[in-house]
Amino acid sequence: MTAGTETVDTAGAPTGPDTAARAGSTRGRLVLEGIHKALGGKAVVRGIDLAMEPGEFLTLLGPSGCGKSTTLNMVAGHLLPDSGVVEVDGRDITRLPANRRAMGMVFQSYALFPHMTVAENIAFGLRMRKVGAARRRRRAAEALELVGLDGMGERYPRQLSGGQRQRTALARALIVEPDLLLLDEPFSNLDAQLRVRLREEVAALQRRVGTTTILVTHDQDEALAVSDRIAVMAEGTIHQLDAPETVYLRPATDFVAQFVGEVNVLDGIAAGASGAGHRCRIGDTHLVTATPVGTAPGDGEAVRLYVRPEAVRVLAVPEKGRSERPPTDTDTSAAGASVDTATRPGLPGTVEATRFLGTRVRCVVATAAGRVEATLPFGSEVPTLGEEVICAWQPQHASLTARP
Ligand SMILES: Nc1ncnc2c1ncn2[C@@H]1O[C@H](COP(=O)(O)OP(=O)(O)OP(=O)(O)O)[C@@H](O)[C@H]1O
Fold first, then answer.
1. pTM for the full model?
2. Ligand 1: which residue has its CA nearest to atom 26?
3. Does the keyword Translocase apply (predicted)?
């Protein structure tokens, strides 16, 4: 889009440079401070604090009803918080009406005007801002190109596929060069393949234009794939606000561990630090290791350990080991190695089920701590049903917290 010099009639609305030239923008620093909101007599948002950097892509992730959309609507100005402050670029906008905020919003339902062409839909925000017709047409054509819809400007929404409609909605949100782009479950109406493709497109586009973006979703894969940071929400509060890797590998709470990705949950008793982590006793005899999240537990404290199926190695028991699974001197190798539990941590068990999943095999092992699921990578040797094995993992691949 060309450098804009037009003024607009909405306080806080942008008059800034081209959308395409805004990567590395310093605009769109959002701060939420102590936000509370009750709806229908129920506390729906209960003390949200959040600070976003300009250009950041942040996802509000949580189960249905946890307050994600309510939070987004307070940023958009569709809802007024009961208490707390919404600030953009140092300016308190808590009480500023939605139409005077510089926000671009995309909804699950597209919300396009059926009687307007795609180009008219996209240019709508500019028309509201009294931008002249010729300039509107030019900017709409540029926005169409930005979202890969060149040449489709004269169609009507009903003549578009779901993905094309959502690209139109995105172009309409971006054309006003908003401080913030707010995406409320924008991919939910699309089929699985298109959902993945469009989310990649949106993430790439966001990096290009550099608009600070909040995505609301309950889809953890989506959140992990596109976000700079994820705020995991439950019951109106943020449980953890971190980079995707940290949320996945170092879940801060029991809820985060169990909501984001699949996880084995094992209860045990803390048994002292070891060089590469913290020891944890399962049952009377078995020792495993993990990395504490936050303060390390005291000896004898009841702890809960979380380990992802893909981090679990299924190893042969040395004395029963099959000849085709040669022992190694490390327990960090893939399935096929063996482990000596007298000297190394590990959880013995019996293979209860194996399931072929195409690119990997899922192996279920019955242990003293309950069922442990392991994902064996493609090409691994698959243990036989009823085989006695050891489940092992590297301490940095398992996390440990005080038992809730
Ligand atoms: N206008 C309203 N009046 C009363 N309760 C409401 C209203 N809007 C939302 N709620 C309730 O507030 C809670 C949070 O809703 P919200 O839409 O923010 O959740 P969400 O996390 O976005 O969930 P979803 O993914 O299902 O949209 C829900 O229990 C919902 O039923």
1. 0.84
2. 64
3. yes
